[in-house]
């Protein structure tokens, strides 16, 4: 079994802010796509830090109970982001 790495809320916020600063200027981004099952909260933190209001999700599965298998895309992103504008 692999070792667990515990991430505190403070560390998650610190790293989200560091990543957001590397993604500046935020005007170059139309939105954020977050991967479900672990990426939704970091995606929301990034969106807040960058002032981005459009967040979508991609859902991917690679496990069936305890067995690792092929990646299956369960949900893709919305397609019409090019028409969205900043508020």
Automatic annotation (TrEMBL):
One of its GO terms (cellular component) is cytosol. Keywords: Cell membrane, Glycosyltransferase, Magnesium, Membrane, Metal-binding, Purine salvage, Transferase. This is Xanthine-guanine phosphoribosyltransferase. GO terms for molecular function: hypoxanthine phosphoribosyltransferase activity; metal ion binding; xanthine phosphoribosyltransferase activity. GO terms for biological process: GMP salvage; IMP salvage; purine ribonucleoside salvage; XMP salvage. Its EC number is 2.4.2.22. InterPro entries: PRTase-like, PRTase_dom, Xanthine_Guanine_PRibTrfase. It comes from the Bacteria. Signal peptide: none annotated.
